[in-house]
Specification:
This protein is mainly α and 202 residues long. Helix content is 72%, strand content 0%. It has one domain.
């Protein structure tokens, strides 16, 4: 069940490709390069120096690398739910804080695809659940983390013009207000992990 929440290999590849392009352009600014021109324009629009933009990129890169590492390491087991939740919340943070890096070059289309995949994952999970669950069930915790993530993905997609308002309305997501805070989700998943450990020791 947790496997469906694993970051797809194609998404990992897109992230890695985008990171490589951005890193090259930030470190070796060639004004003839289209991506470099976009980066310089981004710095001008945001009224920050290229040095500040490089620092933001470094933070963005570190978070994406962590996300990729978690995505590759996410397997079924006692840590899977906790790692899945943390991955979703880290993806949310990337979308909230570094959305402007996602708009460069072919990033828009890739981000749109990724956003729609997360929405599909959420809708499929809701259908599969089909009943009232308690807060300690794995699927409940993962769905709650998606409720935190999806609005951020949608907002970032709109900001970079990857998805239109009409497309969002057509998704008919309904109420995706999370019932649990991010902190509570991690706490519940951590408690569940230790419950499994204690059960195995008994």
């Amino acid at each position: 069940m947790v496997n469906r929440f694993i970051l797809p290999q194609e998404t990992i590849s897109i992230f890695q490709e985008q990171l490589a392009i951005l890193e090259r352009c930030l470190n070796d600014a060639n004004l003839q390069d289209e991506v470099t021109a976009e980066i310089l324009e981004l710095a001008n629009i945001r009224q920050i120096s290229l040095i500040q933009l490089r620092e933001e990129f470094r933070q963005f890169r570190d978070k994406v690398k962590k996300l990729i590492k978690w995505g590759k390491g996410l397997k079924e087991g006692e840590l899977a739910v906790l790692l899945g939740i943390k991955s979703n919340l880290l993806t949310k943070e990337i979308a909230d804080k570094y959305w402007y890096f996602l708009s460069l070059q072919n990033g828009k289309e890739a981000f749109k695809i990724k956003t729609l995949k997360y929405i599909d994952m959420y809708q499929e999970s809701i259908i599969e659940a089909g009943y009232v669950w308690n807060q300690y069930e794995d699927l409940y915790l993962l769905i709650e983390s998606l409720k935190h993530l999806i609005p951020s993905l949608i907002q970032a997609s709109v900001r970079i013009n990857a998805i239109s308002e009409e497309e969002i309305n057509a998704l008919e997501l309904g109420d995706i207000t999370p019932q649990e805070s991010e902190t509570m989700l991690i706490s519940l998943a951590s408690t569940k992990k230790w419950d499994e450990v204690y059960k195995n020791l008994a």
